[in-house]
Amino acid sequence: MNKLLLSIIIPFFSFGQSEFNSFYIGDPLPDAPILAARGKLKVGVKTIQVVNPNQIDILSSDEEKTVLYDRPLTLEIWYPASLGIEEKEEVIYDQVMGNFSDPNRPLIPFKFKGRARRDAVSNSSEGPYPLIIVSHGYTGSRLLFTYLTENLASKGYVVVSIDHTDSTFKDANNFNSTLLNRSLDDLFVLNEMARLSSDSSSFLKGLVNTDKAGLIGYSMGGYGAVNVAGGGYSEQAVKFFAASSKGNNALKKRKMGNPDYINSFDNRFKAIVAMAPWGMENGFWNAEGLKGIKIPTLFVAGGKDDISGYEKGVKAIYDGAVNSERYMLTYLNARHNIAPNPPTAEVMTPGLHIDEYLRYADSVWDQRRINNINQHFITAFMGIKLKNNTDYLPYLDAKGFDEQDPWEGFLPRTSVGLEFRMDSPAQ
Fold it and tell me: CA-CA distance, 56 to 177, in Å (whole number)?
């Protein structure tokens, strides 16, 4: 057993109940794999507002007219920070549960703690840092994955999580806005981060390297990430969208083979993580569209996903992405929620709608355990693809896992309930 692994294991054996009670979301459990541990850098966090001008307002458009609007987005940005002696690495996040569009699930505000410092001074001593963009599901929030966003920032990334307009708990609207705007929001945020990295008035000036960018998407965020990676939508998807958008065919621009789509490919994205991506079971991709994925991609799925599907859903996307270097992590018997933070006490209050709890929980897996495993594999994947860190290669060597128990980086008896695959691009 290597020295780094021992340095993580030994402190956990002396943990008492008080230490567990002081855990923050995302802290490693005693059985966490090695790369779940936070990095050496302190973390700051800021909220900013941006506007993507002259976008199609699909909710006001139809076959005869296309209405444009300035599309607002709220971004949460985590980054390496410099903290003074008196500055504590702690933040209180304001979240809501419920669903704006569901009268049976009224919006209820709640708070939870994280390990970051609000509006801290940035630390560029080891920068500029690669960029990672994070995209939530429908409905969701930019704060749904703080276990991961804080963790990655502590390892030397600038992490930007998007509140996708019309798709959050607070403003959920017609699904067509989400279908159209996911990949467009991701591409805009990449460009906006590049602009701010050159803006002398921005805290991001010189802090972020947008030429080395990654994208992490969950559920509908995964749907958008697959499209950004080169998975052009099918003709069936375009027809479905037009039929439900009063004849407007705006999604056609994101269809495989469309010149506008081909010209939108952005080579600054070097790695994609698609967590439970939605759409395959609904015909949004076909074999030809999936062949367009050429960016290295890590898929993460629950083996019993009842929202995106598994065999005919996420696994089918993985199998069809024959032109990409790809990996797939499967939580056996887990359902769809293999990406969010764990449930807090607020969402476990008796009498609340069960979906408030199930938004954050899986009925088989401990969500904190899922969080730690995600941290481990995403750290390795992004470290290899965005930082060229070859030390992480053994942690993604699925062929080696066939003969290994436990897997590289896991403690004895803990690499159970998981499957991990890897495939190279077709020759």
Answer: 9
Could you say which architecture CATH assigns to the domain 39-368+380-406+416-423? 3-Layer(aba) Sandwich (3.40)
Strand 117-118 and strand 42-56: pairing?
parallel
Helix, strand, or coil here: 93?
A: strand
The CA distance from 147 to 138, in Å, is: 19
**Closest CA relative to residue 26, chosen from 13, 11, 43:** 43
Q: CA-CA distance, 171 to 177, in Å (whole number)?
A: 11
Please state whether the predicted TM-score (pTM) of the whole model is above 0.90.
yes
**Two tokens, residue 197:** 């990295």
Structure tokens at 243: 């039929």
Side-chain half-sphere exposure of 325, counting CA atoms within 13 A: 10
Which pair of structure tokens corresponds to residue 139?
Answer: 């409905």
Q: How many CA atoms lie within 13 A of 228 on its CB side?
A: 36
Q: Determine the Cα–Cα distance for residues 402 and 190; give it in Å rounded to an integer.
A: 38
Cα 330 to Cα 299: distance, rounded to the nearest angstrom: 8
Q: What is the pLDDT of residues 270-303, one digit of tens each?
A: 999 999 999 999 999 999 999 999 999 999 999 9
The helix (H) or strand (E) run that includes residue 213 is strand 208-218
In tens, the pLDDT along 326-360 reads 999 999 999 999 999 999 999 999 989 999 999 99
